[in-house]
Amino acid sequence: LRCAAMTMILLLCIFSTYVNGLHGVIPSPPPSPLLSGAGGDDAMMVSCPSLPAVLPIASALPNISYLPDPFIFFNGDRVSNESSWHQCRRTEILQLALYYQYGVYPSPESFVVNGKMTPDNTGMIVNIASHAASVSFTVPVYLPTNNAKPPYPLIIAQIQALLGNDTSINFFTSRGYALLLVDQNGTIAADGPAKTGIFWELFPTYTNRTGTILAWAWAYHRILDVIFSSQAHLFNTAQIGVIGYSRWGKTALLSAALDVRFSMVVPMAAGCAGTGPYRFLYEQQGEAEDLSKIYGVFPYWFSPNLAQFIDAGVGHFPYDMHDVIAAVAPRAILLNGAMQDYWANPEGASVDYRAAKIVYDWLGAGTNIGIAFRNGTHLPIQDSDWHNVIAFADYKLLNKAPSRPFDDPFYPDHPEDYPWKAPN
Questions:
Q1: Ramachandran quadrant class, 103 (left: phi over 0; alpha: psi -120 to 50; beta: rest)
Q2: pLDDT (tens digit, 9 = 90+) per residue, 362-405?
Q3: Per-residue pLDDT tens for 193-221?
Q4: Which of 128, 178, 243, 412 is the most exposed place for a label (fewest CB within 10 A)?
Q5: What is the distance between the alpha carbons of residues 317 and 20, in angstroms, rounded to a whole number?
Q6: pLDDT score for 45
């Protein structure tokens, strides 16, 4: 009976309706049972509140001065139990974030994916076809160099942070991890206003509807499709993490929030629209990036809907980034950053950590969210960053005893920024 109930829950979490435009409709996360996040053996069927058929413009949304309560649905109802969180509220948060911030996720009916490893296992070939194009790209793969045996734990990252840096690659491979590096900028979608890259070849009508960050996250999901369909003998599908730095830290966070096939995510120095809140900037020692600055320079990262919050005010967001972080729960997440990286609002990230941890604690997964800051500025990426990632991955993917604490937020608490509590 439990198996039958879980099957029904997973089927209910499949989404079948996708948008043909941004305004007046609500995008859904990718419709896969793997995205349900349904609660476990005691999961029960629940009735989910519905979002409006037409979501309000920013100025018509309530102006909330603090981080919005993640346990309050858009219609004002309150999350009552874990099942309503996993089946309903988490999905609602992602729907709102896609609509107002990230853009439209392509319908799974609009493309097919297959792939394989190269004969020498140094690359993964990913083939994707849509109604508009057929594309193929190869992702470099680095297998463990120690005595590890397959299936290997796997870390997926953007190629720009690691390729050409043998020391960084060796941090992972010498410790038994396989490493898969994606050329997001050069292959998937250009990091600029030009709509070049395979995502735009596959979906040419999405150029004004989907932000580049979502396009990059979509590519990570297609790699998972190949791994889960044909490469589970080589990679342990229960031990897959995704990491990213700066803009790709934002991408890693979104990738894991949308897809529960990721067991761990480490968004590093992700800042505004990543691990930092829109509502609170801590600039006592240096200027922090806010919405107007990031959208003014990088509008192509986002849905066009995001721009309206610049004039309306960020208090009108029906969510904030602590909600997107909490959407990863109960899976593992480490917020990593640098204390003198003021532009990335590290103190704000510590507030988001504390706020999201309330959700993790309520779900009985409080040790699955961590935070680790180092001294230093945004760049260069330092060895201590990789040590933090490896230590957390060993702890959460390999179930080793923690080699260091991951629960020190480094900054004073600001409980007034999140004046709500978890349900009893």
A1: left
A2: 999 999 999 999 999 999 999 999 999 999 999 999 999 999 99
A3: 999 999 999 999 999 999 999 999 999 99
A4: 412
A5: 23
A6: 77
Residue listed under structure tokens 């960050």: 213
Amino acid identity of residue 222, one-letter, is R
* Bond preceding residue 419 cis, omega within 30 of 0: no
Structure tokens at 118: 């190269």
Q: How far apart are CA 333 and CA 325, in angstroms?
A: 8
Cβ neighbors of 255 (< 8 A, separation 6 or more) are 216, 217, 220, 221, 242, 262, 265
91 neighbors 70 (Cβ within 8 angstroms): no
Residue 1 has a pLDDT of 42
End-to-end Cα spacing for the chain: 28
Residue whose structure tokens are 């435009």:
21
* Predicted local confidence at residue 166, as pLDDT: 72
Q: Count how many Cα atoms sit within 13 Å of the Cα of residue 262 in the half-sphere of its side chain.
A: 29
User: What token pair was written down for 228?
Assistant: 């889960």
Dist CA 315 CA 130 (whole Å): 39
For residue 288, give both structure tokens. Answer: 């922090």
Q: How far apart are CA 55 and CA 29, in angstroms?
A: 16
Q: Which of 71, 72, 67, 69 is CA-nearest to residue 280?
A: 67
**Is cis: bond before 108, omega within 30 of 0?**
no
Kindly report whether the peptide bond that precedes residue 402 is cis, defined as omega within 30 degrees of 0. no
DSSP secondary structure of 118-142: -TTSSEEEEEEEESS-EEEEEEEEE
H or E segment at 362?
Answer: helix 346-362
Residue 164 has a pLDDT of: 56
Q: How do beta strands 123-130 and 111-117 pair?
A: antiparallel
pLDDT band (50, 70, 90) for residue 2: very low
CA distances 303 to 207, 209, 332, Å, are: 10, 6, 27
Residue 373 tokens read as: 């800051």
Three-state SS for 287-346 is CCCCHHHHHHHCHHHCCHHHHHHHHHCHHHCCCCHHHHHHCCCCCEEEEEEECCCHHHCH
Residue 240, token pair as written in the block = 């897959």
Residue appearing with tokens 């969210």? 369
Distance from C-alpha of 279 to C-alpha of 281, rounded to nearest angstrom: 7
